[in-house]
TrEMBL record:
One of its GO terms (molecular function) is odorant binding. This is Odorant receptor. Signal peptide: none annotated. GO terms for cellular component: plasma membrane. Keywords: Membrane, Olfaction, Receptor, Sensory transduction, Transducer, Transmembrane, Transmembrane helix. It comes from Aphidius gifuensis. Pfam families: 7tm_6. It is a multi-pass membrane protein. PANTHER family: ODORANT RECEPTOR, ODORANT RECEPTOR 83A. One of its GO terms (biological process) is signal transduction. The keyword Membrane applies. InterPro entries: 7tm6_olfct_rcpt (IPR004117).
Amino acid sequence: MFVVLGIITTACILQPFIMGAIKKNGMPKVLKFEAWFPFAFNETPIFQMMYFIQTLSSFQCLMMQVLLDGTTVFIVFHCCGQLTILCKVVSNYKGVLKHNNTEEVSVEYFQQSCSCTRCITNHYIYQAIFVKKVSDFFSSYNMLRIMMSTTNFCLMGYISVQSREKNEASNFILEGSFLLANMSSFFGCCWVGQQLLNKNEELVNAVHEISWYKYDHKCIYPMMMLLKRTKRPLRLTCGIFFTLSHELYSGVNKN
């Protein structure tokens, strides 16, 4: 989806060249991003320089967006993998309090493949802390993405409608494609957040399926605390208002 967004962005930037070549009337000297300039920007070679600067800036912004989104996807997939391992370990729970007699209490002390109560709880707490740090780090960026995506939806939709009414088929196709690419990119972010919520739900189900009545209360009490904690799912947030999920994507599109 990020590649598609890059292709559509390139097509939009090169639109004047493409239309000039099709109509064979030369390239119209109109910048893609309009602004106020204290000089005549439509004169040669100033126009070409400004067009190049705008194009370079657009690609730099796109690269930064892809880098941040890719980093988020990589980290969330790592967390989902850890929760998958934890679900498998919980399903093999045998009512063992701890696998050795050490007094180590740090949450960083656990064995991924161990199904004792201490390793399970420490593993989950460690992942919860890690996800919280990731969510706090990307929260402002995710909020900015929502605001930008919503603005793009409105602007691109308006431009597409205006182009259609003016029978400008090329503009309608390009702006409509750019709108779809933005929607796909935003959906990708929400989809990643939804995967984390789904894995948390799988962990809740795995803890619920433990045969509590078979084990000593010393082992069950920490697991009950874990069950209570999992009811507050691990999630990626947008500011302090929203959670990245399919529900958020649906709500933004409806509004």
